[in-house]
Design a protein that fits this description.
Blueprint: E1 5-6, E2 10-13, H1 17-28, E3 33-37, H2 45-48, E4 52-53, H3 67-71, H4 75-83, E5 96-98, E6 101-105, H5 107-117, E7 126-128, E8 146-150, E9 153-155, H6 157-165, E10 172-174, E11 181-185, E12 188-194, E13 197-199, E14 203-206, H7 212-221, E15 230-242, E16 250-253, E17 259-267, E18 273-278, H8 280-284, H9 290-304, E19 314-325, E20 337-341, E21 344-348, H10 355-369
Parallel strand pairs: 1-13, 2-3, 2-14, 3-10, 6-16, 14-21
Antiparallel strand pairs: 4-9, 5-9, 6-8, 7-8, 11-12, 12-13, 15-18, 15-19, 16-17, 17-18, 20-21
The chain binds flavin-adenine dinucleotide (FAD).
Length: 397
């Protein structure tokens, strides 16, 4: 071994929620890990997410609980344990934006859902609110629908990236695919050479989100992971910066089994609030130009909140792509995904919420591989730290 070769137990590609959660989890178990990030930490899907840590009830909008909604029901409590310091991943410094996510509906939709929401199956997970407890944006007398409270959290994603990066900051390394090289062999990834430093990992985790397809293409060329493919789901999100003061964290239920609109609220550096809009608006928005999406968003807000005046609001769009393991008929996957082939573990959390599930799955694969933790390493100065990502609402306006 030359002086410039490092032999970590595990090399992780990607510094979004998946990679950062995993390096913290593996680090807590005593493994020596390095993480390579080609952009900024959190800077792709994770900082673009709405930060809702949900127990799957939004998938119950069709009027029944699917396997997807059952499998993630335990996740909000897993996050709460980590926030209390009772999990190998320490989230005690994580900032919560809202302890609950609301769901609102109006007229005919309200009556269709009432019996189901009141059913025994959902008891304790969803509560109908009295008008006095409605969030301020829905407290106007002109609003005639119902509001429910879900047992979900909304977290500050910037604080999530900070909290997960801090304990392992020196090990989160800048990686430049145009300069750095990967070498594959029959056992998987033989080495990564980063700014001249050769890294020979015991195991390698592909947790690069939208970057996984390019890494998989390299592996496929070396006749590895040939069965593994991803699916990409584009969204056109809308950011609405206003000075109405209301903070809303809520899904609007329409006639389909998906939320018409999902609203979360975030702070801009100038003190104004941004409503970040997803749901069907963002899914259908991929067929619209930016200008058309802004117009569609304004029309939707005027329809759903006729008592609020958004005429002075600034609107911006954000094109972002969700990356997931490939599914039959492009349905959304049910769980986090992790599979090992030789020294490669390919992973997708599929949702921020499912990061603890991903951690469990990857940890089981690492233990099954029988990896023995190596001695702590000293990192050479050639390895530079990956930069931190910046939330979109800090740079869209
Ligand atoms: C608009 C939107 C809203 C969402 N809202 C929610 C929500 O409210 N709740 C929820 O549970 N989920 C939500 N999700 C899903 C969730 O955000 C994603 O499932 C999750 O963030 C994916 O994390 P990740 O680490 O796999 O990917 P990412 O966060 O995209 O991280 C991957 C990282 O890998 C890096 N990378 C790429 N290629 C390479 C390479 N070759 N080498 C090294 N690094 C590389 C990228 O730069 C990036 O930083 C949302 C997603 C979107 C897009």
């Amino acid at each position: 071994m030359s002086d410039n070769t490092l032999k970590p137990d595990i090399l992780v590609f990607g510094g979004g929620i998946a990679g950062l959660w995993l390096i913290n989890r593996l680090n807590a178990a005593g493994y020596q890990c390095l993480l390579l990030e080609s952009g900024t930490l959190g800077g792709d899907q994770t900082l673009a997410s709405q930060g809702i840590i949900h127990g799957g009830l939004k998938y119950a909008l069709g009027g029944s609980l699917s396997s997807e909604s059952e499998s993630i029901a335990a996740m909000p409590d897993r996050w709460r344990s980590a926030m209390a310091g009772d999990d190998p991943v320490d989230l005690r410094n994580l900032t919560v934006l809202s302890e609950t996510q609301h769901m609102w509906s109006s007229g005919s939709v309200a009556s269709r859902m009432t019996n189901f929401f009141a059913s025994k199956m959902l008891r304790g997970r969803i509560d109908k609110l009295k008008r006095a407890d409605f969030p301020s944006a829905l407290a106007d007398n002109a609003f005639k629908g119902n509001v429910y409270k879900l047992d979900d959290l909304v977290i500050n994603t910037e604080s999530l990236i900070d909290t997960l990066s801090a304990p392992v900051r020196q090990r989160l390394l800048a990686y430049d695919p145009a300069r750095d090289t990967l070498e594959w062999n029959d056992n998987g990834l033989a080495s990564a050479t980063v700014n001249g430093v050769r890294i020979e990992p015991g195991l390698c985790v592909l947790a690069a989100g939208n970057g996984n397809p390019a890494l998989l293409a390299q592996a496929h060329k070396a006749h590895l992971l040939e069965q593994e493919h991803s699916q990409l789901r584009p969204l056109k999100m809308l950011l609405v910066k206003h000075d109405l003061g209301h903070r809303l964290y809520a899904h609007c239920v329409g006639t389909s089994n998906k939320p018409v609109l999902t609203v979360t609220s975030h702070d801009c550096p100038d003190g104004k609030v941004v409503w970040y809009l997803g749901g069907e608006l963002a899914e259908q928005g991929v067929d619209r130009s930016d200008q058309e999406q802004r117009a569609a968003g304004r029309a939707e807000l005027d329809k759903l909140f006729p008592w609020l005046d958004f005429s002075n609001a600034e609107l911006a769009t954000l094109d972002v792509v969700r990356a997931e393991p490939k599914q039959e008929n492009r349905v959304k996957p049910d769980n986090a995904y992790a599979r090992r082939d030789r020294n490669l573990i390919i992973s997708w959390p599929t949702k921020l919420t499912l990061a603890p599930d991903l951690g469990d799955r990857v940890m089981a694969l690492v233990e099954e591989h029988g990896l023995q933790p190596c001695e702590p390493m000293t990192l050479p100065a050639e390895l530079k730290q990956a930069p931190m990502g910046v939330p979109y609402w800090h740079r869209c306006f």
